């Protein structure tokens, strides 16, 4: 299978960050995955020029210089100091999205790919810096992807090969799994969650599936190239519209401890005082717009907020707390 442009650019960045000195274009052609597929030197040169321009457009500080004092050949590298980012301040949702994305680097597939890229560079005679920081560490227990890494890997592979997939899915934790057959178009994140977008063959319609609601038994079916993604389809817009908060007419009853969960109190309507677990508190009623968002908000208060009703919301909150604590149900 041909190397995608994104994969080729990532390989190039890894190579240019990992070397102590400058790498010649010829060494890049023979040692960086994705360039050896060029049918001729001229085709490689055109591809490499486009890639260099694209990296520079992305703000990557690509430098040109002599390979060594004894070798006047022109080579390339990335300036580590200029490439490093200053401290970045993120909102809670932005931090969650970054944490989810970086967790992918802990997967065996990506770790193996990165190590393989560096090994190939060393084998080609490139002076690779042993202290080069090309791996990303990430926090454990990230909501939204926890336990779904294998599912994500299979879906991404199917999307790349344009094959259909079949998997068990349930709309909520309280409902049973049903088998769905989907032509996958892409996977995107929204509010810290991962979603698959595609054409549901069983319903003959565009559908969105949250990865945490997809069972582990995902099967790739049909021949490669059988799936066609519609032109100009906006996956992010589809997901955003699907998960947007809409009034459901349902209400939740939540106990909150005295002096705690102030923001939750402001969003609800007081329904009277109540003792729970020996602690004084108050029952409030909350409108359920997005059950997913409400569960996430309540879970954030830990023992200071307890769902009394409905049972499905209570179970969702408990599942999040167990996942955060690393405890199975």
From TrEMBL:
Positions of the WCX domain: 250-323
PROSITE patterns for this protein: WYL
WYL domain boundaries: 151-215
Pfam families per UniProt: WCX, WYL
N-terminal signal peptide: none
PANTHER family, sorted: PROTEIN PAFB, PTHR34580
Designated name of the protein: Protein pafB
UniProt organism field: Mycobacterium numidiamassiliense
């Amino acid at each position: 299978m041909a190397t995608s442009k994104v994969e080729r650019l990532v390989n190039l960045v890894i190579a240019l960050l990992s070397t102590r000195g400058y790498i010649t274009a010829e060494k890049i052609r023979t040692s960086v995955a994705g360039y050896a597929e060029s049918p001729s030197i001229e085709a490689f040169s055109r591809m490499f020029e486009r890639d260099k321009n694209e990296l520079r457009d992305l703000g990557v500080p690509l430098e040109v210089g002599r390979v060594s004092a004894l070798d006047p050949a022109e080579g390339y590298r990335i300036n580590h100091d200029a490439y490093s980012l200053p401290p970045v301040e993120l909102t809670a949702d932005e931090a969650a999205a970054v944490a989810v994305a970086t967790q992918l680097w802990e997967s065996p597939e990506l770790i193996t790919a990165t190590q393989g890229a560096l090994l190939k560079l060393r084998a080609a005679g490139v002076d690779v810096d042993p202290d080069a920081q090309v791996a990303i560490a990430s926090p454990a227990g990230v909501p939204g992807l926890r336990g779904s890494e294998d599912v994500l890997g299979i879906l991404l592979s199917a999307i790349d090969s344009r094959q259909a997939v079949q998997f068990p899915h349930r709309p909520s934790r309280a409902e049973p799994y049903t088998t769905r057959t989907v032509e996958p178009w892409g996977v995107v994140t929204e509010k810290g969650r991962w979603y698959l977008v595609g054409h549901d063959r069983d319903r003959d319609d565009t559908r969105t599936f949250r990865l945490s609601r997809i069972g582990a038994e995902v099967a790739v079916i049909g021949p490669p190239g059988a799936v066609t993604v519609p032109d100009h389809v906006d996956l992010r817009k589809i997901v955003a519209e699907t998960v947007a908060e809409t009034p459901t007419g349902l209400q939740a009853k939540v106990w909150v401890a005295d002096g705690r969960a102030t923001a939750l109190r402001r969003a609800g309507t007081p329904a009277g005082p109540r003792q729970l677990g020996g602690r004084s508190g108050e029952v409030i009623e909350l409108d359920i717009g997005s059950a997913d968002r409400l569960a996430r908000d309540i879970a954030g208060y830990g023992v200071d907020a307890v769902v009394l009703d409905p049972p499905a919301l209570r179970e969702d909150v408990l599942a999040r707390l167990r996942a955060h604590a690393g405890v199975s149900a």
